[in-house]
């Protein structure tokens, strides 16, 4: 069967595919493909291994052909794929959540938190510019985390690990999710609150929800106005959860104290005003960029394809309900 891989991924997982009995085509470009380039190579494929930079909807699925059985997304989030249309057409969609990737993203959220509260990036840049003239009592004053309140929006796997780390730093942790999770509350020593209460009580707010129609631009002007004055926003989830224009206004007007963003509304483009702000830290969508996480993501993305093509239900399905009605 034919497998199309839209971009080479790090690690050795791809070897398992290329050594399998299947015909494997890996994009020759080390960049996202334009849709025409993508279709030209993917047409006739039984399986796709794609990245979050590839956008897949029903039209793309139809253009690839009725033999397409599985879309293996090399990512935890799958907002780049129209799941409903894939499901309606009988195409399985899988993603790559694992302890390794969940830890990596949670650790990045905490790293960004420290970087903001201790002004690590500003201080580093200033030191490199040669401005360090000896110990001074008043330079780069930040704030302690211990004793402060950390608010987690979305207590899934990544949110729960982030909660554990925040607790480890001596912070009080509040969380919001669709329904309270009493078991997690006991285990982690955290407290459920309504979203607005979380925003107004937290010194740091970290987003750990998927991008859906309900969460798109959820952090907008009205929600930002609820934030505690001087508080920080951390986003390692999806850029479009935040209205970037409203965030720029909130930062400029001092409604919030700073933001650390790993994801953006219109990647790879970033609002130039954010780039110009000193109280903003920007990383290029690297929260899962550890060798441990990326190796595991590759293993899972490859296993999903090999399992599906041999008739075995893949481990991490984004649309489990498709399995009895899938294309074979
Ligand atoms: C990265 O953003 C992912 O969803 O894995
Ligand atoms: C700082 O270096 C201190 O000794 O307080």
TrEMBL record:
User: Which family would the database say this protein is a member of?
Assistant: Belongs to the D-isomer specific 2-hydroxyacid dehydrogenase family.
Q: Which organism is it from?
A: Candidatus Woesebacteria bacterium GW2011_GWB1_43_14
Q: Which domain of life is it from?
A: Bacteria
CDD domains, alphabetically?
GDH
Query: Does Phosphoprotein show up as a keyword for this record?
Result: no
- Record protein name field: D-isomer specific 2-hydroxyacid dehydrogenase NAD-binding protein
Which keywords has UniProt assigned to this entry?
NAD, Oxidoreductase
Q: Does the record bear Heme in its keywords? A: no
Question: GO cellular component terms?
Answer: cytosol
A GO molecular-function descriptor: NAD binding
Q: Which residues form the D-isomer specific 2-hydroxyacid dehydrogenase catalytic domain?
A: 3-319
InterPro entries per the record? D-isomer_2-hydroxyacid_DH (IPR050223), D-isomer_2_OHA_DH_cat_dom (IPR006139), D-isomer_DH_CS (IPR029753), D-isomer_DH_NAD-bd (IPR006140), NAD(P)-bd_dom_sf (IPR036291)
Pfam families according to UniProt? 2-Hacid_dh (PF00389), 2-Hacid_dh_C (PF02826)
For the D-isomer specific 2-hydroxyacid dehydrogenase NAD-binding domain, which residue ranges apply? 110-287
């Amino acid at each position: 069967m034919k497998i199309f891989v839209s971009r080479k991924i790090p690690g050795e997982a791809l070897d398992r595919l290329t050594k399998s009995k299947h015909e494997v085509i890996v994009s020759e470009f080390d960049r996202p493909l334009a849709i025409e380039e993508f279709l030209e190579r993917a047409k006739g494929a039984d399986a796709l291994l794609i990245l979050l930079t590839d956008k897949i909807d029903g039209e793309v699925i139809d253009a690839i052909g009725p033999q397409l059985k599985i879309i293996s997304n090399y990512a935890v989030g799958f907002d780049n794929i129209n799941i409903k249309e894939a499901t309606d057409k009988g195409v399985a969609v899988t993603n790559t959540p694992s302890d390794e990737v969940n830890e990596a993203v949670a650790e990045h959220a905490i790293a960004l938190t420290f970087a903001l509260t201790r002004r690590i990036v500003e201080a580093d840049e200033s030191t490199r510019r040669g401005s360090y003239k000896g110990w001074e009592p008043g330079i780069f004053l930040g704030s302690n985390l211990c004793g402060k309140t950390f608010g987690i929006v979305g207590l899934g796997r990544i949110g729960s690990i982030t909660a554990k780390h925040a607790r480890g730093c001596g912070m009080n942790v509040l969380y919001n999710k669709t329904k309270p999770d009493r078991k997690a509350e006991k285990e982690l020593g955290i407290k459920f609150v309504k979203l607005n209460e979380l925003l107004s009580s937290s010194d740091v707010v970290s987003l750990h929800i998927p991008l859906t129609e309900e969460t798109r631009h959820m952090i907008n002007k009205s929600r930002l106005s609820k934030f505690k004055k001087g508080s920080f926003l951390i986003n390692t989830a999806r850029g479009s959860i935040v209205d970037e224009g409203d965030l720029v206004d909130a930062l400029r007007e001092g409604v919030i104290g700073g933001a650390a963003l790993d994801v953006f509304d219109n990647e790879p483009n970033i609002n130039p005003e954010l780039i110009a702000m000193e109280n903003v830290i920007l990383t290029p969508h690297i929260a899962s960029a550890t060798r441990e996480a990326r190796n595991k993501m590759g293993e899972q993305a490859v296993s999903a394809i090999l399992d599906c093509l041999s008739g075995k239900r893949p481990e991490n399905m984004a649309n489990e309900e498709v399995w009895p009605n899938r294309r074979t």
